[in-house]
Amino acid sequence: MTRYQHLANLLAQRIEQGLYRSGERLPSVRALSQEHGVSISTIQQAYQILENLQLITPQPRSGYFVSQKKALPPVPAMTRPVQRPVDVTQWDEVMMLLDARGDREMISFGGGSPDLTQPSLKPLWREMSRIAQHNPAEMLSYDVLEGRKELREQIARLMLDGGSTVAAEEIVITNGCHGALSLALLSVCKPGDIVAVESPSFHGTMQMLRGFDIKAIEIPTDPETGISIEALELALEQWPIKAVILVPNCNNPLGFIMPEARKRQVLALAQRHDIVIVEDDIYGELAADYPRPRTIHSFDIDGRVLLCSSFTKTVAPGLRVGWIVPGRYYDRVMHMKYAAGGFNVPATQMAVAAFIRDGHYHRHLRRMRQIYQQNMERYTCWVRQYFPCEICVTRPKGSFLLWVELPEQVDMVCVSKQLCALKIQAAAGSLFSASGKYRNCLRINVALPPTEKNREALKKMGEAIYIAMEE
To answer: Is Transcription regulation one of the keywords UniProt gives this record (predicted)?
Structure first.
């Protein structure tokens, strides 16, 4: 996070806590510059962010004042799903979301694709071209089952940032994070088993459970601290739960980072009840603050945490390069991978390994963290401007996904169908629930550049929501 972003966050917290009251004049640019030991331009950039968020208002020759309107919408409350095992539904709605990818005219606020337009990706494209020219036989050959060693070595180095010390031999390359999660579930569960999930939870994981005939039990989840340890413990005492799937870092769709103490608590709970934790860390590298947060896997001492991740969100989904660290389930995962025909494409693995080795990956990450945070601020401002004032909005700690809770009478499933006719795609909240809850919520992908076209599309979405409230 840059200095001006850090300062903007600090001032926003002070406004939210009431230290700077509505209508009150803020310290001058020069005074803040001296107080924090930064340049005047840094203060001006911080104030510009707050102005974009409509938290402050400039007045000529007088300075900056706290806006009269409410500073920020409240964060959604702890979710309250029905705590019993259910069969996952919503497949038809997920297919509608996936089908929209084929429409080039669609503005996809509902998808989860990262920004692929940045120049920091150019070294990767050059490396792929070089491999095609100079290693055609190798790129068209069979891969080894566990994946390219040079890539596994680079991933092992990356995992140190999340607190995990693993050898390349402990890592298995997969077909994206989806492939890693599939292998994890196939290795530890059988049809009819029960798996605990956060609520709301990523729809792709939900549909995986449906496909494997595994029941889901949704656990109440706080949008700022994560899954309720107390509710999970109660569920473990009542039901024969086999595993829990967690996205503790830059959660999809709520955006929280689970505090380190709670990560240790959930691991202790898993040890006490002898269950498996499947940890999805696909967004962990996109945390706004550096160093990145630790994984639950980094605290694991008995191999019960299966860590899954990929370069889908940090680099590009088309690479289809992910990985799993299976712990005590390594042999089972390798067998499941072979049974599923899971050899990987050598060319993309070779290119990603070089991209990391040559320092381009970390430069790209630094750029994307900053861009996504700026996008989050801009889109949050637009949501406040164009959506009803009764909304609740998450405060993501990284990544590029924003969760919005609308008034109860709004059915985003119906609104989404209407928006499709306008070539605007929205992800209704019900997609993220096994039982179809959260119909009055939606997830917005802010990786889309904040262009005038996308602003107009979000404005139309807000208009459709207002109409739904009146019906």
So the answer is: yes
Please determine, for residue 266, whether its predicted confidence score (pLDDT) is greater than 60. yes
Please count the other Cβ atoms lying within 10 Å of the Cβ belonging to residue 10. 12
- Strands 392-393 and 441-445, by their bridges, are unpaired
SS3 at position 430: helix
- Two structure tokens written together for 432: 């993220």
Instruction: Give me 142's structure tokens.
Output: 């069979």
Tell the burial category of 426 from Cβ atoms under 10 Å away from its Cβ (0-12, 13-18, 19+). buried
* pLDDT digit string, tens, across residues 285-294: 999 988 999 9
CA–CA dist 417, 250 (Å, integer): 28
CB distance 309 to 327 below 8 Å: no
Rounded CA separation 205/306 (Å): 15
Q: Comparing C-alpha atoms, which of 354, 272, 276 is closest to residue 308?
A: 276
Residue 253: cis peptide before it, omega within 30 degrees of 0:
yes
Residue by residue, DSSP assigns 364-427 as: HHHHHHHHHHHHHHHHHHHHHHHS-TT-EE---SBSSEEEEEPPTT--HHHHHHHHHTTTEE-E
**pLDDT of amino acid 272:** 98
Is pLDDT of 358 > 90?
yes
pLDDT of residue 69: 59
Closest by CA to 251, choosing from 402, 362, 368, is: 402
Phi, psi dihedral angles at 276 (to 5 degrees): -95, 145
Predicted local distance difference test score (pLDDT) of residue 2: 79
The Cα–Cα gap between 453 and 206 comes to 32
Q: What are phi and psi of 217, to 5 degrees?
A: -120, 120
d(CA 101, CA 178): 17
Average pLDDT over residues 377-383: 89
- The pair of structure tokens assigned to 308 is 């899954």
